[in-house]
């Protein structure tokens, strides 16, 4: 992985993608940020990318966030994944933990962005 980090933001909410992107670029203006609106869009766009970090929404049409991450992890074993969710069910958090995924609650706030960055930098 290079010094310039590449991040893929996957969320069906354009507003959420914009908020995440703006907050990340405010702290890391040199990062390359890619966006996808759902799981299928991600799989199409990711083919020729080497991505360091992913933020993935849990609830999206088609492929849900956990299933998408399960598909991506073998292709990106060194990448870090954050699952964004408003779902507070323990089963979701347990499954994310089993996959070594950081679970961050929505909505997107400065605190949630800090949690994401702490995980990426750890």
Shape: globular
- Based on helices, strands and strand pairing, what is the structural class? alpha/beta
Largest sheet, spatial ordering of strands = 2-1-3-4-5
Q: In which range does the helix fraction lie?
A: 40-55%
Distance between the termini: 15 Å
DSSP E strands, number:
5
Describe the largest sheet: 5 strands, parallel
Residue windows where pLDDT falls under 50 for at least 5 positions: none
Beta-strand level of the residues, as a percent range?
15-25%
Radius of gyration, in Å, reads 13 Å
Order of helices and strands: EHEHEHEHEH
Summarize the structure.
The chain has helices at residues 14-27, 39-45, 65-72, 90-98, 110-121, and strands at residues 6-10, 32-36, 53-57, 80-85, 102-105.
List the helices and strands and how they pair.
Elements: E1 6-10, H1 14-27, E2 32-36, H2 39-45, E3 53-57, H3 65-72, E4 80-85, H4 90-98, E5 102-105, H5 110-121
Parallel strand pairs: 1-2, 1-3, 3-4, 4-5
